[in-house]
Design goal:
Blueprint: E1 5-6, H1 10-15, E2 19-23, E3 26-31, H2 35-44, E4 47-50, E5 55-60, H3 64-71, E6 92-98, E7 104-114, E8 117-122, H4 127-137, E9 144-147, E10 153-158, H5 162-169, H6 173-177, E11 185-187, E12 208-210, E13 219-224, H7 229-239, E14 246-248, H8 250-259, H9 299-304, E15 311-316, E16 329-331, E17 337-347, E18 350-353, E19 356-359, E20 374-381, E21 390-394, E22 399-405
Parallel strand pairs: 1-3, 4-14
Antiparallel strand pairs: 2-3, 4-10, 5-8, 5-9, 6-7, 7-8, 10-13, 11-12, 12-13, 15-20, 15-22, 16-17, 16-21, 17-20, 18-19, 21-22
Helix pairs in contact: 2-8
Length: about 425
């Protein structure tokens, strides 16, 4: 049995009340004070998450673009904005790596560092698998592929106060935040990079700052050299005290991402056909629906399975009660077993009033609104379901009536202009 890995912040977590558990190959904090408190603080103030267990793969060379186009589901020639512009330097996009069967190997965010260099952010333990996959199919393409697993520090700061907090610690924050739109990044984690002077802490520590995250709320992902990780974390955490910033664990990260309609790789997408799910924007569909705008690994299998693939849909309940996703089935109105539950979490920041869902951050929430929490998640079923359709989730303890949903937590802030939070 392999020894469990520890991130660069592991001792900090242990010293500051983190409840450490095994997650994949890593020991990670599940929570500190309470999951509810950590979930809510990301909507009201700010929370910081250790994400150094995630992996980064760098692809560099004259043919890096062509190799990624072959391996990745998004069409990098048409992936930015409503106009589907080509990916530009400093922009990043979400998509997936598929195998020849059209099954998801992993999802990823790819950032264009330069015309010949790309940063690929994948899930814990997947750096080696994605690097090997790219090496296997690259042929004679001129690309150097470097797996930076456990060689790079990473943490996230998320929530409406994250912008003010980063303003306090960054050198020249106005320049950093200028034109920093959602899913863009600046700087570099390598001090030797010519981009390293774009984003620095006030003490000169370089970092790559990405305006992205896994909560649905405004915030940043920080990529940094291993030796600078603890110092930078502590600097930002100290700056965040006056803004109510808290360290947060995996449990709040999971409930936040579920309420934001974000998938967990190997749970909500995985070893089945990558079709008919809420994230189909990650596939390069032609505008007329006739097919895909490019060839990529797995594309032919997707076309062949178009009429037979199962359907993954989001759901939301009427209260905070959950079922055990590992032991739950999905029943239709007649009681027929039609599928499995992939994720079931509680977004404690939302509630229903007269049938409408509000968040504690909703500007139009009713007076004296109190969020009691709603269960939410994803199911994978045999047949197509319509938004609003009622289904039943059943595990060994309970049955829950839920409805198919197009969205869960309203009024999320991730895409709003940074100037609103300064």
């Amino acid at each position: 049995m392999e020894e469990i890995k520890k991130t660069f912040l592991n001792q900090w977590h242990a010293d500051n009340g983190g409840n450490l558990v095994g997650f994949g190959d890593y020991e990670m904090p599940l929570w500190y004070s309470s999951v509810k408190k950590e979930h809510l603080v990301v909507l009201t103030n700010a929370g910081m998450f250790d994400t150094s267990h995630m992996a980064v793969v760098m692809a560099k060379g004259a043919d890096a673009f062509d190799l990624i186009q072959l391996c990745f589901t998004r069409d990098l020639n048409a992936c930015i904005g409503k106009d589907k512009l080509p990916i530009a330097v400093g922009r990043c996009v979400y998509g997936a790596y598929l195998d020849e069967n059209g099954y998801a190997i992993d999802d990823a965010i790819i950032g264009k560092v330069s015309d010949t260099e790309y940063m690929i952010v994948v899930n814990a333990g997947m750096g080696g698998a994605i690097a090997k996959h790219m090496e296997t199919v690259k042929g004679d393409r001129q690309v150097d592929i470097a797996d930076l697993t456990d060689r790079l520090g990473k943490f996230d700061i998320q929530g409406p106060m994250s912008v003010k907090i980063m303003q306090k610690v960054l050198k020249d924050p106005e320049k950093v935040f200028d034109k920093m739109v959602y899913f863009s990044f600046k700087g570099h984690f390598d001090p030797a990079s010519p981009l390293a002077d774009q984003v620095q802490l006030k003490d000169g520590t370089p970092l790559l700052l990405s305006r992205s995250g896994y909560t649905g709320e405004v915030g940043f992902e920080v990529f940094i050299a291993p030796e600078d990780t603890v110092k930078a974390w502590e600097t930002i955490m100290a700056a965040g005290q006056e803004f109510g910033c808290l360290p947060c664990g995996l449990a709040a990260r999971d409930s936040l991402r579920t309420g934001s309609l974000l998938p967990l790789s190997h749970q909500d997408i995985g070893h089945w056909t990558y079709l008919n799910h809420p994230w189909c924007f990650a596939l390069p569909y032609a505008d007329d629906g006739s097919g895909f705008t490019k060839e990529f690994i797995g594309a032919q299998a997707l076309v062949a399975a178009r009429d037979t693939a199962e359907h993954t849909v989001a759901f939301v309940g009427s209260d905070l009660r959950k079922v055990d996703a590992h032991d739950a089935r999905v029943l239709d109105a007649e009681g027929n077993d039609i599928g499995t539950v992939l994720t079931c979490a509680t977004d404690i920041a939302v509630g229903r009033v007269a049938g409408k869902i509000y968040s504690i951050a909703s500007p139009d929430k009713p007076e004296n609104f109190k969020a009691k929490g709603l269960c939410c998640g994803y199911v994978k079923v045999k047949t197509r379901l319509s938004v609003g359709e009622t289904i039943t989730l059943q595990d060994k303890k309970r049955k829950l009536t839920v409805s198919v949903a197009a969205d869960v937590r309203p009024d999320r802030t991730a895409r709003k202009p940074l100037k609103l939070f300064m």
